[in-house]
Design brief:
The protein is of the alpha+beta class and about 190 residues long. The chain has a single domain, classed as Alpha-Beta Plaits (2-Layer Sandwich). Helix content is about 40%, strand content about 25%. The strands form two sheets. The chain has a six-stranded antiparallel beta sheet with strand order 2-3-1-4-5-6. It has a two-stranded antiparallel ribbon with strand order 7-8. β5 and β6 form a beta hairpin. The radius of gyration is 17 Å and the shape is globular.
């Protein structure tokens, strides 16, 4: 308890473990997305991190890359770490096995939290193939919930499709109820 008080004073906090467990909900929801909505997993997922400069952060990043490299030998999951045009750091994962993607997203998230960088976790996202282009399900680490993002050309989004996705998937996924927290992500590197 003493350390949690010190962490709070220093502005450090941990994401509750229960919220990380919600990451796995997308695994079973992907079946409904495909069967009922025609959205198939596109074999790509990512985690967006707010970068910071510190040796502890670099140690966490090195451990994540070591774990992913080891996992790649076991599961065949390809990965890369890159910065987007807004200078956010992305761990991009590619694997035709959707469950492997979900497990690797959880692995990276857990490692960041164990190193004290839970606050740096912004979101995880999973790409699906839709009839009219990509559809993303975004998991907000702070809110512990998912929301759909259907981008269109010209930095527009298909709100009606997003609302339809929400209504169909609410029974299976923890969906963010506050629509103002459905942030669009432009320049996604996957």
């Amino acid at each position: 308890m003493r350390f949690k008080i010190l962490d709070a004073i220093r502005g450090k906090s941990e994401l509750p473990t229960a919220k990380l467990d919600r990451l796995f909900a997308i695994s079973t929801a992907s079946i409904t997305l495909e069967a009922n909505l025609g959205l198939s997993p596109a074999g790509a997922a990512g985690i967006c991190l707010k970068p910071i400069e510190s040796s502890r952060y670099e140690a966490a990043r090195a451990e994540i890359e070591d774990l992913l490299s080891y996992g790649a030998r076991e599961t065949g999951t390809k990965y890369r770490v890159e910065k987007d045009e807004y200078r956010y750091l992305w761990v991009v994962l590619e694997d035709p096995d959707f469950d492997d993607l979900v497990a690797n997203v959880h692995l990276v998230s857990t490692t960041m939290i164990e190193h004290g960088f839970g606050e740096q976790l912004l979101c995880a996202l999973y790409r699906f193939r839709g009839r009219n282009g990509p559809v993303y399900w975004i998991y907000s680490f702070k809110g512990g919930a998912y929301y759909p993002f259907v981008p269109l050309e010209g930095h527009q989004r298909d709100n009606s499709s997003e609302f339809r996705l929400r209504s169909v998937m609410e029974p299976e996924l923890p969906v963010e109820k506050d629509l103002e927290k459905w942030y669009p992500l432009w320049g996604i590197p996957l």
